[in-house]
Amino acid sequence: MPEWTNPKDPAPAAAPKPLASWYAQGLSDGLGDRLLMFDNSSAPSLELLRFHPDLADIPGFEAALREQVRRLDGFRHPAFARVRAVQRLEPDDDLALISNCTPGKRLSEVLHRARGAGFAAAVIEQLGPALVLFQQHDTGVAHGALSPDRIIVSPDGQFTIVEHVVGSAMDVIGLEPARLRAMGIAVPATGDSLARLDVATDWYQLGLVAMSALLGRQVTATDLPQLERLLDGMSHGPGRDRTVLSPWIRQWLDRALQISSTRIDSTADARAALDDVLDRQH
Length: 282
Known about the structure:
Radius of gyration: 22 Å
Order of helices and strands: EEEHHEEEHHEEHHHHHH
CATH class of the largest domain: Mainly Alpha
Structural class: alpha+beta
Distance between the termini: 82 Å
C-alpha cells in the first residue's frame, strides 16, 4: 500500500551537491611547472608552482621560501595575488608554492596585441605605486623575479603581480647571474659574481617589463646592450600605438634601467620618481 503524505509537509532537503574538481596545465618556465586547480565550491581557485628539482633541492631554498611566505602573510593588495602556502606534493615530494589563481592572461601572452607607449605608461602607472607599497611592507622586501610571465592582465586591463615571494628566497641562497638568467630572471650588470635580487633590481625588472610593452615582445639578451638606442627611436616619433613616448616616462625608464647615472636604488628613490612622472603625465 502506498504511503500517505500530507501535501503541506515540507519537501525533503536536497542532497548536498558533490564536490567536483578539475585541473589545467599552466605556464612552464625556468622556475617550474604550473597547475591550475578549480572546483565547484565557493573557495578560491588555486595555482600551484611546482619548482624544478635543480632549484628546489638547493640547500636553504625551501627554508628561505617558507620564511618569505611567513613574512608576507599579512600583506594584501589587489595588485598582488595572495600566496597561500608552501607544500611538498605527493607522490614525489615535489616542492610547490600555492597561490590564488588570478583570472586573465600572462602579460607575455598579450604583448603582441597590446603594445606601445600608452601601454607601457599604463604598466608603470599601475604597477609602480603597488610595488612601492609592497617594498614598504617590511625592510628589505623585494619581488626580485618580476617579468611579463609573472604579471596577469585581467579582461578589463588590470595588472596583478604573482609569485612575489620567490625572488627574495632566491636572493638568500645567492645564485650567479648566468644561472638566474637561465631561469628567466633578469638582473642588472654588476661587478660582483653574485646578483642581488633587491629593491634596485625590482625597478630594473619593472623597466624591462615596460620596455617589453613598448616593443610588443619580451626583451631579449641581445636587446640589453642597446636599450638606450631603442628608447631613442621611440622618443622622437609615434610608436606602434600612435603615441609618442613622453619625456617623463623616458626619464623614468632611463633611471629604472640604470641608463642614467641617477639610478633608482631605494624605495624612497622609486616613490619620488613615480610621484614626479605621475604629476607630469597628468
